[in-house]
Amino acid sequence: MANKGKNYKIEAEIEKYRAHQNWDKALEVTKNQWSNSKSANGLADLNDVVSNLLHGEKELESYLRANPPSEENVGKAKESLASAEKHLRYVSTRCPKEKETLKREAVLLLVKLLFAQARYTDALNEFESISVDALTIHSITNRMLKILAEGLAVKAMCMEKLIDQGVRERTPQAEEMIIKYYEQAGDILLVYLQNRDVVDLNSASPTYSGNVAIGSGSHNTTSDDSIGSILEMAVQKSPLIYIEKGEVSKGVGRFRDLLRAVGSTTSKNLYRLTLARQLAEVLLRGVCSATYPPIALKTDRKRGSLKARQYSGRGMFVPSNEEEEALLLLLIAEAMANREAVLERRPEHKQSRQHSYDNATAVYDLLAIALVRRSNCAILAEALERAMKFSYEEPHVWYQFALSLIETGKFDRANVVLKECHRLMPSNNTILLLQADLCYEKLHLVDDGIALCEKAVDNSDTTIGKSKAYLLLATGYSYKLAECRVKSERELLEKKAYDAYNKSYSLDSYSVESAYRLALHLAQQRRLTEAFRCTRQALRLQPGHMNSLALLSLLFSAEKNYERALEVIKIALAEYPDTFRLDVIPVVDKIQTGE
Q1: Which terminal residue of the chain has fewer beta carbons within 10 Å of its beta carbon, N or C?
Q2: pTM of the model
Q3: What end-to-end distance do the CA atoms of the chain give, in Å?
Q4: How far apart are CA 502 and CA 512, in angstroms?
Q5: Looking at beta carbons, which pairs linking 128-137 to residues 24 or more positions away fall under 8 Å?
Q6: Which 3-state string (H, E, C) describes 280-291?
Q7: If 0-12 CB within 10 Å is exposed, 13-18 middle and 19+ buried, where does residue 486 land?
Q8: CB neighbours of 15 closer than 8 A, spacing ≥ 6?
Q9: Confidence of residue 221 (pLDDT cuts 50, 70, 90)
Q10: Half-sphere exposure of 512 (CA within 13 A, CB side)
Q11: Nearest residue to 159 (alpha-carbon basis) of 130, 117, 124
């Protein structure tokens, strides 16, 4: 009995080191403390079985951490994992029946190894050699939960690969089985993460006896934070397959089940951020009020089953439509992305920093869509301001922030942010023109706007870009002209404005706006013949252009051709009954009074 209790303690210590992926320490414990007791049928002693399992697991996990399974890494996997395969096959073939747990773990690890080597048929055959259907949450260690989840995910991936290669036929039954295995892998992963938080390691008593484990305290509390690329993909796969098949309601339901699971506090759980973003995207783009599936809070989880615990309770907020649910998901995802952002600027953190930034910007882009639809840019501006802490030298977020500030009426701040955007994107003329327009329309900084337009003219390398820059430059001169009272300065500004409008129109003769603005400037200078020509050209390019119609009616009125002016007004009112410009009303009054 004393020896049996000692073995339990050693087994618990080995499980702890395995959970931390510290296989060297686990091998040291096995070598120094385990009694070399022969098995009943003499196939292998426990020390050899556990040592081979640990060696094989160490070599496999170390390789996969540096080289995730992919088509490019198949050749390297076949060469690098030969020794690991030898260790795992030793355990799977020489482990006696009373050590069924060790055999099961070795086979599941072997399945993952064969998948990395693109030996998909062999992997499926190995998986079929063991039984996992009868396992419950109380009968296996937490480390085994993760291995089992990976095994089920790999089985589904192998089936998909063989179907894609034409080795197996794509049937509805096969697709259902693939979805089933992905869902089981996702559920078991969530259980694994939850158990890692709530079970005290001191109460763990795993055993390698005839039963898979003894007692309910056979789980480990801590482990490495990463869940691995296989499980990250698997947990997202089943809802996406449903959606690809057109079963949007089932896909949305699966997303909800995964997100309602009680979260793990010992892991960053970046997969939750991805799931929330993906579900929000589906709701925004693929669901309307007629097809929106209501949220059901009921759960069918049975005690001891491999199903994750879900949040429940009274007084929970339940979204009533697709917009509310999408917005709630995106606000939660934004909080997670902001919290988990990588701020470290050292070169070795570049990849993780870029990954967290990409996740965050995907959320902010969807949040912009959701909030702009509801005309609530204030919340968007607040969210983007929080994103500034991890957006150093990242122009996309800065530009979004500037646009949101403009929409919320914070023009001074928007001007400052646009200056930073121009520093980050010096070749982007759109930013210069947007800032110039802001200076003209909102900040009354006409000289600053003109300077920005001149810079845009110099920076532009396309005719259309130069045309737009000249058009806005001419607008700036027109603003100054309206305020100028000195004759000599007015004449100079008139010439500058005309030259800029003319250059804009000559560079892009198909621009309605350039033709209209040139016509308006000529009309203001009483050059009516030229103004008529440019107005007609604008209407030829866009017959229903409202401003050109209004200008044409005023030009006819200026020539005292009121009947023609009235005809144009009637045409315009038929086209724009609610929005046609009010400055043409005096023309109608003159006609009606007979002046």
Answers
A1: N
A2: 0.79
A3: 119
A4: 13
A5: 129/92, 130/103, 130/104, 132/104, 135/212, 135/306, 136/304, 136/305, 136/306, 137/191, 137/195, 137/304, 137/305, 137/306
A6: HHHHHHHCCCCC
A7: exposed
A8: 141, 143, 204, 206, 220
A9: very low
A10: 11
A11: 124
Quote the tokens at residue 423.
Answer: 């520093």
Write out the two tokens for 272: 């939750």
Q: Is 554 in contact with 523 (CB distance < 8 Å)?
A: yes
- Tell me how many helices (H) and strands (E) the chain has: 26, 0
Among 394, 326, 328, smallest CA distance to 360 is for 394
Place of tokens 């789980």: 219
Check: CB of residue 507 under 8 Å from CB of residue 464.
Answer: yes
Q: What is the rounded distance in angstroms from the CA atom of residue 135 to the CA atom of residue 188?
A: 11
CA 54, distance to chain mean position in Å, is 37
Q: What does the alpha-carbon distance between residue 281 and residue 330 come to, in Å, rounded to a whole number?
A: 9
Helix (H, G, I), strand (E, B) or coil at 165: coil
Q: How far apart are CA 369 and CA 72, in angstroms?
A: 37
| Single-letter amino acid, residue 40 | A
**What average pLDDT does the chain have?**
84
Q: What are phi and psi of 310, to 5 degrees?
A: -120, 155
